[in-house]
Amino acid sequence: MSSSVTTLTQQPFSVRSVTRLLGRIGPAYYALLILLIVAAASQERFLTGPNLTNLIRNSTVLGIVTIGQIATMLVAGIDLSVGSVISLTTVIAALQMESHPEATPGIVLLCLLIGLLIGAVNGFGIGYLRLNPLIFTLASGTAIQGLTLHLLYSPGGSVTREFRELSRGAIGPFDCSFCPGGTLGPIPYAAIYLLVLYVVGTWVLKRTVFGLAVYAVGGNEASARLSGLRTERIKLAVYILSSIFAVLGGLFLASRIGSGDPLVGDPYTLDSITAGVLGGTSLFGGVGDLWGGLAAVLTLGVLSTMLNFNNVSPFYQFIIKGVILIGALAIGYLRTRRKTV
Amino acid sequence: MTAKSVQSSARRALLQLSLPPAAIIWIAVGLLLLLARSVSASFWELSHLLNVARQASALGILAIGQTYVLITGGIDLSNAMVVTLVNVVAATLLRGSDETLGGTLLICLGIGLLTGLANGLLITRLKVPPLVVTLGMFSILRGAAYVYTDGAPRGDISPALEFVGTGFVGPIPTAVIFWVVLTALAAVALQKTVFGRQLYAVGGNEKASRLSGVPADRVIVLAYVVSGLMAAIAGLILSGYAGTGTLTLGDGRNLDSIAAAVVGGTSLSGGSGSVIGSAGGALFLALLFSFLRFIGLPYTIQLMVQGLILAVAVYLHVRSQRAS
């Protein structure tokens, strides 16, 4: 094509640099953008306050957990225990708040400490004993699932009224937190949690020594170690963070459903991996960032909202999710291959 | 002698023996049996042990396919949903009678074969990591099972399949016969055929195997096809046991099959492993659960112990690899 020749030879700032920039943007952003346009164009209800509020609230747990999952993927690891940690958190929060409603802050702290402990066990096994992360977090996840079912076999318990407000509340001129679905105008707390966690998380990953070390360990563990990084300690910290984010997700979920459920966290394990991969994070470590993950989480959320609007059976979501997951990586491969050929 | 020196000399003796991992898991099975016997003699009864073996058989068959895939350096998370899909399809098509048995079996095996083929082709042609492909396939198959049944599975399994799931030939459960035969075939194929040696070569060093003329892509695709087929067979056997269609029949079986293979000495990084070891792993896990139930521990504690055992098994495995 003659136009490509001209861009190559004559115009330094041109179509080519734009396409190169567009090529760097992950598939999750495109998917989100296209889905948002389609959703907004086809459904007038989509861009209303209650719907957007609901979308954010439905995406919050996955959004929070995905931060931790991406961190483990960045060090070439994986955390299959997050689902059980979420379930355990809802169970402990609901049971404890039911019997000691006055001690809610202490109970939240207790949950975070449990997360710290679980993450430390995972991180010790994977970082210091160098056990395979897939199998080790599978093992710890199984054990935690057993513990959770032992504490509460079927859904029960209840969180305090104030604690429910954490997920249902909103700030804004038309604050009406008890209205069904919220109202047009206020910003849900959930959006603020997500924004704060992603901004702080990105800052830590991109601007601190720890964050750069995470990328270094994931990029090439041997050379990271040779250049003096304590790779074991970094992995320990990453798995602790992953468990703590799972606990935070679990606390939000407990607040949202208002009770404890020993199996409620189960889907989040695979969904958080899906979101990380879709967001452009490599399973082999060293490549990826949080914002892509958030775009992927919201993509999945918009998708399920649209399917609901169009009365598509929710069962199709499983199929679509699977196709998207495989497709995102297949497209990435085809694109790089075309470039090299 | 202090306890420590006894320990270290025992370890040295073990190292000098340098037992293959497959042998270690069978020794563990033996020790577990002795422990169970010392707790209760009735655990030791043949009928009870055969019942445990029957419970292990579906897991054991899944573990055969998982072992093939793990040897190539891959992983198959989709096998659990092949089990579920096969189960609901079989129940719907059979509607409790053997009339449509032949066609149903073909369709069910076809599901396993096509799943494996799709997994293998996506992994080799589009270079998507096995974890992602089979995770995506897991989701697709789950969707397929829900859409096919509209969320409410109907129908019943036929008498012939129930015989496979719950029946006996003489004193031996039918499912165990299937397991033993498939394990023997898979073990011979792995050790004595060109395909088997190529599996190890591809898993040990894919690049080197390609350079020395191994058709690596075809070998990898075949491994996933074997895993899909084994999952379909396990699904049929489990269907026979369950008797009806249920959307949860496969739940957790992907991770269980990985656990059985890993406990049996198969490495997650590829290039090593054995079907005999995985069979031992499946039997060990089934025995352990049966034993824990036997001494009255609830399911919840069993899960905790399962996690613990798995963690200890990988730890020992890594230790023995580093020592050698």
Describe, in short, the structure shown.
By secondary structure, chain A is mainly alpha-helical. Chain A is built from 15 helices and 2 strands.
Considering the chains and any ligands shown, give keywords for the structure.
heterodimer, A: 341 residues, mainly alpha, ABC transporter involved in vitamin B12 uptake, BtuC, two-stranded antiparallel ribbon, 15 helices, 2 strands, B: 324 residues, 14 helices, 77% helix, 1% strand
Task: List strands and helices in order, with pairings.
The complex is a heterodimer of chains A (341) and B (324).
Chain A (H helix, E strand, L loop, with lengths): L1 H8 L5 H10 L2 H16 L6 H26 L7 H18 L4 H25 L4 H19 L9 H8 L1 E2 L15 E2 H19 L1 H11 L1 H6 L4 H27 L8 H13 L11 H20 L5 H26 L1
Antiparallel strand pairs in A: 1-2
Chain B lengths: L2 H15 L3 H19 L6 H26 L7 H16 L6 H25 L4 H20 L9 H8 L1 E2 L2 E2 H19 L1 H11 L1 H6 L4 H27 L10 H11 L11 H20 L4 H25 L1
Antiparallel strand pairs in B: 1-2
Helix pairs in contact in B: 2-13, 3-8, 3-11, 3-12, 3-13, 4-5, 4-6, 4-11, 5-6, 5-11, 7-11, 8-9, 9-11, 12-13, 13-14
Percentage of residues assigned to helices of chain B? over 70%
Number of helices of chain A: 15
**Mean pLDDT of chain A, nearest integer?**
86
> What proportion strand of chain A?
under 5%
Structural class computed from helices and strand pairing of chain B: mainly alpha
What is the annotated CATH architecture of chain B?
Orthogonal Bundle
Weakly predicted, low-confidence segments of chain B: none
